[in-house]
Amino acid sequence: MTQRKQIIAGNWKMNGTLSETANLINGLKQKIKSDTLRRNVILCPPFTSLILARELTKGTPFKLGAQNVHFEGKGAFTGEVSAEMLKETGCEYVIIGHSERRAYFHEDDALINKKVKKALGTELQVIMCVGETLEQREKGITNDVVRTQTDGSLHNVSEKELEKIIIAYEPVWAIGTGKTATPDQANEVHEYIRSLISDSYSPAAAERLIIQYGGSVKADNAGELLSMSHIDGALVGGSSLKADDFAGIVLA
Protein backbone atom coordinates (compact mmCIF):
# COMPACT_ATOMS: atom_id res chain seq x y z
CA MET A 1 0.00 0.00 0.00
CA THR A 2 1.26 3.47 -0.90
CA GLN A 3 2.10 5.65 2.08
CA ARG A 4 0.40 9.00 1.42
CA LYS A 5 1.81 11.95 3.34
CA GLN A 6 -0.97 14.02 4.85
CA ILE A 7 -1.39 17.63 3.72
CA ILE A 8 -3.02 20.38 5.77
CA ALA A 9 -4.01 23.51 3.84
CA GLY A 10 -5.22 26.72 5.44
CA ASN A 11 -7.73 28.63 3.30
CA TRP A 12 -7.84 32.14 4.75
CA LYS A 13 -10.62 33.20 2.37
CA MET A 14 -11.17 37.01 2.32
CA ASN A 15 -9.30 37.55 5.57
CA GLY A 16 -5.89 38.97 6.33
CA THR A 17 -4.47 42.46 5.89
CA LEU A 18 -0.70 42.65 5.50
CA SER A 19 -0.20 43.21 9.22
CA GLU A 20 -2.57 40.36 10.07
CA THR A 21 -0.73 38.11 7.62
CA ALA A 22 2.59 38.89 9.27
CA ASN A 23 1.22 38.25 12.76
CA LEU A 24 -0.37 34.94 11.79
CA ILE A 25 2.64 33.56 9.93
CA ASN A 26 5.05 34.64 12.66
CA GLY A 27 2.80 32.93 15.20
CA LEU A 28 2.74 29.73 13.15
CA LYS A 29 6.52 29.77 12.81
CA GLN A 30 6.81 29.75 16.60
CA LYS A 31 4.39 26.88 17.04
CA ILE A 32 5.17 24.59 14.09
CA LYS A 33 8.78 23.47 13.78
CA SER A 34 10.05 21.61 10.73
CA ASP A 35 11.95 19.03 12.80
CA THR A 36 8.74 17.78 14.42
CA LEU A 37 6.40 18.15 11.44
CA ARG A 38 4.80 14.95 10.14
CA ARG A 39 2.48 16.62 7.64
CA ASN A 40 2.92 19.04 4.75
CA VAL A 41 1.43 22.48 5.37
CA ILE A 42 0.08 24.91 2.75
CA LEU A 43 -0.95 28.48 3.52
CA CYS A 44 -3.47 30.12 1.17
CA PRO A 45 -3.76 33.83 2.03
CA PRO A 46 -5.51 36.48 -0.11
CA PHE A 47 -3.80 37.60 -3.34
CA THR A 48 -2.66 40.84 -1.68
CA SER A 49 -0.67 38.93 0.95
CA LEU A 50 1.06 36.38 -1.29
CA ILE A 51 4.36 38.19 -1.78
CA LEU A 52 4.65 39.06 1.92
CA ALA A 53 3.78 35.47 2.80
CA ARG A 54 6.50 34.23 0.43
CA GLU A 55 9.10 36.34 2.25
CA LEU A 56 7.90 35.31 5.71
CA THR A 57 7.83 31.59 4.91
CA LYS A 58 11.34 31.35 3.46
CA GLY A 59 13.28 28.69 5.32
CA THR A 60 10.12 27.25 6.86
CA PRO A 61 8.22 24.03 6.08
CA PHE A 62 5.22 26.04 4.82
CA LYS A 63 4.22 25.99 1.16
CA LEU A 64 2.26 28.78 -0.49
CA GLY A 65 -1.07 28.47 -2.28
CA ALA A 66 -3.70 30.76 -3.81
CA GLN A 67 -7.47 30.59 -3.47
CA ASN A 68 -8.46 30.97 -7.12
CA VAL A 69 -7.07 31.40 -10.63
CA HIS A 70 -8.33 32.43 -14.08
CA PHE A 71 -8.31 30.01 -17.01
CA GLU A 72 -6.48 32.39 -19.38
CA GLY A 73 -2.90 33.56 -19.17
CA LYS A 74 -3.66 37.23 -19.80
CA GLY A 75 -6.28 39.51 -21.32
CA ALA A 76 -9.25 41.75 -20.67
CA PHE A 77 -10.49 40.02 -17.52
CA THR A 78 -10.80 42.85 -15.02
CA GLY A 79 -10.05 41.82 -11.46
CA GLU A 80 -8.78 38.34 -12.34
CA VAL A 81 -5.38 36.78 -11.59
CA SER A 82 -3.55 34.37 -13.89
CA ALA A 83 -1.63 31.21 -13.11
CA GLU A 84 1.56 32.84 -14.39
CA MET A 85 1.08 35.69 -11.92
CA LEU A 86 0.63 33.21 -9.10
CA LYS A 87 3.81 31.36 -10.05
CA GLU A 88 5.78 34.61 -9.85
CA THR A 89 4.55 35.25 -6.32
CA GLY A 90 5.97 31.89 -5.23
CA CYS A 91 2.73 29.89 -5.22
CA GLU A 92 3.05 26.14 -5.66
CA TYR A 93 -0.64 25.32 -5.13
CA VAL A 94 -4.04 26.78 -5.99
CA ILE A 95 -7.52 25.97 -4.70
CA ILE A 96 -10.03 25.47 -7.52
CA GLY A 97 -13.77 24.84 -7.31
CA HIS A 98 -14.34 25.74 -3.68
CA SER A 99 -18.04 25.55 -2.83
CA GLU A 100 -18.13 29.30 -2.25
CA ARG A 101 -16.88 29.89 -5.80
CA ARG A 102 -19.48 27.44 -7.08
CA ALA A 103 -22.31 29.06 -5.08
CA TYR A 104 -21.56 32.79 -5.14
CA PHE A 105 -19.85 33.05 -8.53
CA HIS A 106 -21.78 30.29 -10.29
CA GLU A 107 -18.70 28.32 -11.30
CA ASP A 108 -19.70 25.03 -12.91
CA ASP A 109 -17.68 21.89 -13.57
CA ALA A 110 -16.78 22.96 -17.12
CA LEU A 111 -15.28 26.23 -15.90
CA ILE A 112 -13.50 24.51 -13.05
CA ASN A 113 -12.06 22.02 -15.53
CA LYS A 114 -10.64 24.89 -17.62
CA LYS A 115 -9.02 26.35 -14.52
CA VAL A 116 -7.60 22.96 -13.52
CA LYS A 117 -6.08 22.46 -16.96
CA LYS A 118 -4.59 25.96 -16.98
CA ALA A 119 -3.08 25.56 -13.51
CA LEU A 120 -1.56 22.19 -14.40
CA GLY A 121 -0.15 23.64 -17.62
CA THR A 122 1.54 26.36 -15.57
CA GLU A 123 3.02 23.78 -13.17
CA LEU A 124 0.81 24.68 -10.26
CA GLN A 125 -0.50 21.86 -8.11
CA VAL A 126 -4.25 21.89 -7.66
CA ILE A 127 -6.50 21.46 -4.64
CA MET A 128 -9.79 20.61 -6.38
CA CYS A 129 -12.94 20.80 -4.26
CA VAL A 130 -16.08 18.69 -4.50
CA GLY A 131 -19.01 18.23 -2.15
CA GLU A 132 -22.76 18.18 -1.67
CA THR A 133 -25.23 20.58 -0.05
CA LEU A 134 -27.41 19.62 2.91
CA GLU A 135 -30.43 19.29 0.61
CA GLN A 136 -28.51 16.92 -1.67
CA ARG A 137 -27.32 14.81 1.27
CA GLU A 138 -30.86 14.57 2.65
CA LYS A 139 -32.06 13.43 -0.78
CA GLY A 140 -29.47 10.63 -0.70
CA ILE A 141 -27.64 11.83 -3.81
CA THR A 142 -24.25 12.64 -2.27
CA ASN A 143 -22.45 10.08 -4.43
CA ASP A 144 -24.19 11.29 -7.60
CA VAL A 145 -23.17 14.89 -6.91
CA VAL A 146 -19.60 13.98 -6.04
CA ARG A 147 -19.27 11.77 -9.13
CA THR A 148 -20.61 14.48 -11.46
CA GLN A 149 -18.31 17.13 -9.99
CA THR A 150 -15.26 14.86 -10.00
CA ASP A 151 -15.77 13.59 -13.55
CA GLY A 152 -16.58 17.03 -14.94
CA SER A 153 -13.73 18.84 -13.20
CA LEU A 154 -11.20 16.19 -14.29
CA HIS A 155 -12.35 16.01 -17.93
CA ASN A 156 -9.36 15.24 -20.18
CA VAL A 157 -6.94 15.30 -17.24
CA SER A 158 -4.35 12.55 -17.78
CA GLU A 159 -3.22 10.08 -15.15
CA LYS A 160 0.18 11.80 -15.13
CA GLU A 161 -1.48 15.18 -14.54
CA LEU A 162 -3.61 13.66 -11.79
CA GLU A 163 -0.44 13.24 -9.73
CA LYS A 164 -0.44 17.04 -9.33
CA ILE A 165 -4.01 17.14 -8.02
CA ILE A 166 -5.34 16.90 -4.48
CA ILE A 167 -9.08 16.40 -4.15
CA ALA A 168 -10.74 18.11 -1.20
CA TYR A 169 -14.09 16.67 -0.15
CA GLU A 170 -16.02 19.49 1.50
CA PRO A 171 -19.63 18.80 2.43
CA VAL A 172 -21.13 22.25 1.89
CA TRP A 173 -23.43 21.85 4.90
CA ALA A 174 -20.39 21.59 7.18
CA ILE A 175 -18.49 24.67 5.99
CA GLY A 176 -18.49 27.47 8.52
CA THR A 177 -21.57 26.05 10.22
CA GLY A 178 -19.91 24.31 13.13
CA LYS A 179 -21.35 21.04 11.83
CA THR A 180 -18.86 18.38 10.84
CA ALA A 181 -19.35 15.14 8.97
CA THR A 182 -18.60 12.31 11.34
CA PRO A 183 -15.25 10.61 10.66
CA ASP A 184 -17.13 7.60 9.27
CA GLN A 185 -19.34 9.77 7.02
CA ALA A 186 -16.31 11.63 5.67
CA ASN A 187 -14.25 8.48 5.21
CA GLU A 188 -17.09 6.80 3.32
CA VAL A 189 -17.20 9.60 0.72
CA HIS A 190 -13.40 9.70 0.50
CA GLU A 191 -13.42 5.96 -0.21
CA TYR A 192 -16.06 6.52 -2.89
CA ILE A 193 -13.95 9.23 -4.54
CA ARG A 194 -10.99 6.86 -4.53
CA SER A 195 -13.14 4.22 -6.22
CA LEU A 196 -14.11 6.73 -8.92
CA ILE A 197 -10.46 7.44 -9.62
CA SER A 198 -9.69 3.72 -9.69
CA ASP A 199 -12.41 3.18 -12.29
CA SER A 200 -11.54 6.26 -14.40
CA TYR A 201 -7.75 5.93 -14.21
CA SER A 202 -6.23 2.97 -12.38
CA PRO A 203 -6.07 1.40 -8.92
CA ALA A 204 -2.51 2.71 -8.61
CA ALA A 205 -3.63 6.27 -9.37
CA ALA A 206 -6.40 5.95 -6.79
CA GLU A 207 -3.97 4.67 -4.19
CA ARG A 208 -1.64 7.64 -4.77
CA LEU A 209 -4.39 10.26 -4.72
CA ILE A 210 -4.41 12.57 -1.72
CA ILE A 211 -7.95 13.37 -0.58
CA GLN A 212 -8.44 16.05 2.05
CA TYR A 213 -11.48 16.68 4.20
CA GLY A 214 -12.84 20.21 4.55
CA GLY A 215 -15.73 21.32 6.73
CA SER A 216 -15.43 22.82 10.23
CA VAL A 217 -12.14 21.02 10.97
CA LYS A 218 -10.89 22.03 14.42
CA ALA A 219 -8.08 21.01 16.73
CA ASP A 220 -10.47 18.93 18.83
CA ASN A 221 -11.80 16.84 15.93
CA ALA A 222 -8.77 16.78 13.62
CA GLY A 223 -7.08 13.81 15.25
CA GLU A 224 -10.04 11.49 14.76
CA LEU A 225 -10.70 12.70 11.20
CA LEU A 226 -7.05 12.37 10.18
CA SER A 227 -6.85 8.85 11.61
CA MET A 228 -9.36 7.53 9.05
CA SER A 229 -8.01 5.26 6.32
CA HIS A 230 -8.97 7.39 3.30
CA ILE A 231 -8.56 10.90 4.78
CA ASP A 232 -5.17 12.29 3.82
CA GLY A 233 -5.33 15.74 5.36
CA ALA A 234 -7.59 18.73 5.75
CA LEU A 235 -8.61 21.91 3.96
CA VAL A 236 -9.14 24.26 6.90
CA GLY A 237 -11.13 27.49 6.81
CA GLY A 238 -11.93 29.46 9.96
CA SER A 239 -9.52 27.57 12.18
CA SER A 240 -6.60 28.51 9.91
CA LEU A 241 -6.92 32.17 10.95
CA LYS A 242 -5.60 31.68 14.49
CA ALA A 243 -2.11 30.35 15.05
CA ASP A 244 -3.08 28.26 18.10
CA ASP A 245 -6.03 26.65 16.33
CA PHE A 246 -4.24 25.88 13.07
CA ALA A 247 -1.13 24.57 14.83
CA GLY A 248 -3.40 22.32 16.89
CA ILE A 249 -4.79 20.79 13.69
CA VAL A 250 -1.38 20.44 12.02
CA LEU A 251 0.08 18.76 15.08
CA ALA A 252 -3.01 16.68 15.99
Overall description:
This protein has 252 residues and is an alpha/beta fold. The chain has a single domain, classed as TIM Barrel (Alpha-Beta Barrel). 43% of the residues lie in helices and 15% in strands. It has helices spanning 18-31, 50-56, 83-89, 99-104, 109-121, 134-138, 142-153, 159-162, 183-200, 203-208, 219-226, 243-250, and strands spanning 7-11, 40-44, 62-66, 93-96, 125-130, 165-169, 210-213, 233-236. Strands 7-6-5-4-3-2-1-8 form an 8-stranded parallel beta sheet. α3 (83-89) links the parallel β3 (62-66) and β4. α1 (18-31) packs across α12 (243-250) and α11 runs parallel beside α12 (243-250). It is globular and about 45 Å long.
Task: Kindly summarize this structure in a few lines.
This protein is an alpha/beta fold and 252 residues long.
Notable characteristics:
single chain; 252 residues; alpha/beta; TIM Barrel; eight-stranded parallel beta sheet; 12 helices; 8 strands; 43% helix
Strand content: 15-25%
Order of helices and strands: EHEHEHEHHEHHHEHHEHEH
Q: What gap, in angstroms, lies between the N and C termini?
A: 23 Å
- Reading off the top of the CATH hierarchy, the class is best stated as Alpha Beta
Helical fraction equals 40-55%
Structural class: alpha/beta
Ranges with pLDDT <50 over ≥5 residues? none
Q: Give me the CATH fold name.
A: TIM Barrel
Shape: globular
**Mean pLDDT over the full residue set:** 95
